[in-house]
Fold this protein.
Amino acid sequence: MKKLILSLVAMMTVCAVSAQNELIAKFNEGLTALQGKDYVTAVAAFETFIDKGADSEDATVLSSVAQAKKYVPSCYLNLGMRNASTKNFAKAVELLNEGAMKAELYGESQSLAKLKTALAKVYQVQGGTAFNNKDYATAAEVFAKGYEANPRNTDMALNLAMSYCEL
């Protein structure tokens, strides 16, 4: 009977260690992708790791979950700015908003501020294009979104006012 109990305990320990190793492997996959600037793969790996590791009792896993929660918004920021640089503003806005949502969910206030600042910059470029094309209604709408994203951006407020003035 003792052998059976010891065997069960040993099997449970092996399973727990194996599950922990799989989790850490997923985190390491995210790190490798992040270092290679493959942000899509990094986000997927980190989010899977966070979902599976959040309930862990292992200190190493919990520490890595906290680190992954810092990396996810950063990946979204990089993806958003990459899309903005190719003038794919709609996708950039989508990614930056998703990153802001994740940053808020994970309690990453610094990342949230960076994402909102980047989002405002994307809106500023978008609104500027509409303004220069004399599409003042669209410019006002876009500048309003940008001002909402970053109310401290006085240039955005001035652009919004100029759009309203031209209307």
